[in-house]
Amino acid sequence: MDAKMRHEEARFDVELAPSKLPDRRRGGWVTFPFIAGNLLFMGIAMGGANANLIVYLIQKFGMESIDAAQVSNIVNGCVNLTPIAGAIIADSYFGCFSVVAVASFIAFLGMVLFTLTTSLPSLRPHQCSKAATTVSCSGGGPSTSQIAVLYSALALMVIGGGGSRFTNATLGADQFNTARDQDMFFNWYFVVFYVSSIIGSTVIVYIEDNVGWGLGLGICAAVNAAAVVVFLIGRRFYRVTEVTGSPFTGLARVVVASVVKWGVDEEGAEYYYSSKLDGQGTPSQSFRFFNRAAIQVKGDTNPDGTVAKPWRLATVEQVEDLKALIKIFPLWSSSPLLSITIGIQLSMTVLQALKMDRHIGGTFSIPPGSVSIGSLASVALTLPLLDRAVYPAFQRYMGRAPNPLQRIGAGHILNFIGMAGSALVERARLRSGPAHLTSVLWLLPPLVVTGVGEALHFPGQVGLYYQEFPEALRGTSTAMISLIVAIGFYMSTAVVGLVRRTTGWLPDNIDAGRVDKVYWMLAVVGMINFCYYVVCARLYKYQNKNKEEVGSEASDALST
Prior knowledge:
This is Nitrate excretion transporter 1. It is built from 16 helices and 2 strands. The protein is mostly helical. Strand 1 and strand 2 form a beta hairpin. The radius of gyration is 25 Å and the shape is globular.
């Protein structure tokens, strides 16, 4: 009987494959320098190119400021959408190592092509004003071929940079056997991620603005090449998990089998089909419609016990996996708005910086693309502070550490407070007028507040999804945050477009607009979204009972 069941599991390829015994000669912290090195160098390269993209499009391609901001939002959205595709491909077909290696090389090709757009005069419009915030290219706007080359470079960068980001994190977590080591890895992973973004947004952007775009982007390409080399050097140390099939196919089979067996009487079912070797499982009573997919009727299996009609029969485990995703969806749906506000704040901040006094000490000038350092630095500094001081203190006084739902809720609050702060700063800037430029440093406090909120809700969401997602989807769960960010950036583009069409708040010259009202709108919507999140959090019941040490009950998730 055991042999028969093992044969069934091999045939039923969408079930979670049993893990192989760890190879003691591979994995562990010896792999961290190579994985972190790839992340660090990729982050520097992508940060140096993306952080200054709005300025580059304005100065070198003569785009209007709002149009450049829209392109930047789309690029950022794609960078955060491709990790989902990378995770699916890695989990279903090629594995994490292959995806990270190929994606890093694709990003390198994009960086090289992007560098050529500034190094070769034929690939960009001629004589665009370096300090312009409006279109001022003597030869007119960019040609169709120039735009095609530009967008091709950006597409390669997006596919490569985004495709490797969270797949790299999954590969890193696979190197460890204990939850403690995995948690420690994720903490350092995020620190390296934000530090790399800071370096790219400051050092590289400064070189681009003060030395030359060719040198700055050339360094990005060289650093990207180093990311590929460092990652491949560590190949012999990595523990590589075997790919056994797509878990998403199993979820699709549950839906199809439930519809096909619409008329099957669940009450009269003799037993349910399960992958467990110790007996048949029983599905939960929530979303009972899907239980039909696991009811085994005549013709569903062959005489030897193997599955005869895979799209008519799913396992109880697959049914419960789908239910778990449905249950967590309301919580997930409250998260994209966080990314919408962050995306708009970051793009508007660059435009504000172009209109403000960026000098410090009379000689040094802060590049407008580096203003986002306030948000990145606050995240990088807050993460270890929370882990080493705040959370332990919370546990001493409250008897337990804050659970993911509480951390996400605190992030929501700081998010809309940051939007309100940006509104106040913009209002003060408009009142000062162009004759008395406001210091760009006033943009930092709201960015810091938003960054601290990100340090709370970003890891909180990763922890929640990793804890609550089905075990077969753990790899994809770590990339779900990127889907949230991607939706946020795409929606931020739509929101900005809607505001431009329906109000006069966002003209090309923001001095004649009301960006402060845009921020106030985001703050109000953020407060409403927080109320929705609180309702979802109080109604949510943890699925993985063995991990409720992070929070005893969902009903009191936000009580403190």
